[in-house]
Each structure stands twice: as structure tokens, then as C-alpha cells.
Amino acid sequence: MNSFDIDGVIYIRKGLMGVRPGPDDVIVTGRSIDEEPETKAMLEAAGIFNTVFYNPTNFDNKSRESSGVHKAMILNALKETGKDIQIHFEDDPVQIAEIKKHAPWVNVVHLDHDLTYKENVRHV
Q1: Mean pLDDT of the region 106-110
Q2: Contact partners, residue 79, CB within 8 Å, separation at least 6
Q3: Domains (ranges, CATH) in the chain?
Q4: Is 0.85 surpassed by the pTM of this model?
Q5: How confident is the model at residue 14 (pLDDT cuts 50, 70, 90)?
Q6: Is the pLDDT of residue 100 over 80?
Q7: What is the mean pLDDT of residues 85-107?
Q8: Which of 16, 62, 102, 110 has most Cβ atoms within 10 angstroms of its Cβ?
Q9: Which residues, 6+ apart, have CB-to-CB distance to 4 below 8 Å?
Q10: DSSP assignment of 88-110, as one string?
């Protein structure tokens, strides 16, 4: 089982999708739970129905750092429940650093590009 970020990994920008998760993979996103309706609609329109773990921090209070910590905590929780996460796909070096700090066991594949804006943006 692998895990995938959304922005910069699955969703590059409007009209450009990226790497698709397999049917048994999970999505661990920094997108706030406030963004669930539009995110779910976007994923379903692309034929992606995987389990998504949203950041519980509201949109206005989240940061790239807090999103990385959130991802690490979810990945650790999945491991503790016996889920064998092989790789996490991520594009944001700030979040990668937080994941490596808080979940050093995770193999992170860095999708390095400048096609996606990395700061907090609503996707309505």
C-alpha cells in the first residue's frame, strides 16, 4: 500500500492531473477538512475513490509545516494499525522535512517540479 499527497502529486493544476493512486492506496492530504466537499468532487470526477485523510486544522490556520506534521501522524497511525505503507508520494520539500522528522521510517518519493503553487490556496 502507498500513500499520496493531492496537490502537486495527484492534482497538478486545473486541467492537469498527475500520479494516480492504485485501488488499495490511501490519500493523505494537507487539505483542510474544510475543503472536503470540493476535494471529493474533484477526485470523483477523475475516477479516484480512495480513502482520504484530511488535515483537521481549519483552512485559515494550516501551514505547510502543520500539514507535514499531520501527514506524519496519519502515516504513523496507519503503521500502528498494521497498514504497510511502502511509499508516500509528496512534492513539497517543507512537508517532506516534517514527515522525515516525525515518521523517519517512511520512504518518501519527492516529485520535484514547479507546476503547483505550494501555499494555502482554496480549490473551489
Answers
A1: 98
A2: 85, 103, 105
A3: 3-110 (3.40.50.1000)
A4: yes
A5: confident
A6: yes
A7: 97
A8: 62
A9: 10, 19, 21, 25, 26, 27, 28, 50, 88, 89
A10: EEE--HHHHHHHHHH-TT--EEE
